[in-house]
Design a protein that fits this description.
This protein is 51% helix and 14% strand.
Length: 332
């Protein structure tokens, strides 16, 4: 028997109202005792399981999270994205629709894993969400912040008219472009190459007609353009569009003619994909001159040498057959 006179076996067959009548605390009630009030009215309670690092998730951020939601007395989640290795980017205030979850995320840091209890008004309300969520249900959410981007300034910028965007401060435009590059990199890491390509193009387009007032501004614009072109080139190669990939690799070289990564992109991924081995060799040898001990460049030059030898052998074999056929015809 338990201390309150009811065995745990009997307790599982009683509903929460009956448990309260006989003075038994429910699992969520016991859990709430060790949790911190983050909403001010104990409507959102929090327990940190694993600390994160850095700044708190800001308002209007875009977040990457793993989460699972549970009803009381259930050990299986009614919703979860934990099986997704690369969850989609979620915008606070738009994609995160649960008030309690949004408030909870604003108390979290990158890498943090926490547990939350949400009262009905911070979750699914008095109506619930049939058939999964009963009326007036308190729910438990386990949440891990994988990463986030402060996209508020970028969102505000893109809400402006084209004319307003054109006269915005260069510092703002550069920050927005870097945010788009960050989004693109996250999409790329999730192998969403088409989405990554669009983000990189967006960053690049922002700076097409921007004029620099001094050398410092020119350098800042050039750095963002270079990253945009390099990343766009790689995304296009993943999408099996080598001609366009080469185009943006060469645009990167227009910005910085001796950039080893741009030379590598053009040589390894664009020209080799197009089987223009001599042009690939030219790019890779220039890249090697910049970084003579780079293993990627040197290994690719070895692979290229094998491709050139194979191409030469095939050409020699083809010529031999042609001459053999010519001699055979001449003897007839």
């Amino acid at each position: 028997m338990s201390a309150n006179g009811l065995s745990s076996r009997i307790q599982q067959f009683l509903n929460p109202v009956e448990l309260q009548r006989v003075g038994v605390q429910s699992p969520f009630q016991r859990l709430a005792l060790q949790m911190q009030d983050v909403s001010g009215d104990r409507g959102v309670l929090k327990e940190v399981i694993q600390n994160g690092e850095g700044q708190l998730v800001p308002m209007d951020a875009s977040v990457l999270i793993h989460f699972s939601g549970y009803l009381e007395y259930s050990d299986r989640p009614f919703e979860s994205n934990n099986r997704s290795k690369h969850p989609p980017i979620m915008k606070l205030g738009r994609d995160v629709t649960l008030l309690g979850l949004e408030l909870g995320l604003l108390t979290m840091k990158k890498g943090e894993f926490s547990r939350f209890l949400f009262l009905p008004k911070y979750a699914y309300g008095e109506m619930g969400c049939p058939p999964l969520i009963p009326p007036s249900a308190t729910v438990l959410y386990e949440v891990q912040v994988l990463d986030f981007l402060d996209s508020a300034e970028a969102d505000e910028f893109f809400a402006l008219t084209p004319g307003q965007q054109n006269i915005a401060a260069l510092s703002t435009v550069l920050k927005v472009a870097r945010t788009e590059l960050g989004f693109g990199n996250r999409c790329f890491n999730q192998k969403r190459y088409e989405d990554a390509k669009e983000r990189y193009k967006k960053a690049m387009t922002l700076l097409v007609n921007r004029k620099a007032a001094d050398q410092g501004e020119r350098d800042s614009i050039a750095a963002v353009k270079l990253h945009s072109f390099l990343n766009l080139s790689l995304a296009l190669l993943r999408l099996e569009r080598p001609l366009k990939a080469l185009k943006y690799g060469q645009k990167a070289l227009d910005v910085e003619p001796h950039n080893a990564k741009a030379l590598f992109r053009c040589g390894q991924q664009a020209c080799l994909e197009m089987r223009d081995y001599e042009k690939a060799q030219d790019f890779l040898l220039m890249a090697q001159a910049q970084k003579p001990f780079n293993s990627d460049i040197n290994n690719l030059l070895k692979k290229l040498a094998a491709c050139l030898k194979d191409s030469a052998d095939k050409e020699k074999e083809m010529c031999t057959r042609m001459f053999a056929n010519f001699n055979a015809i001449s003897k007839k």
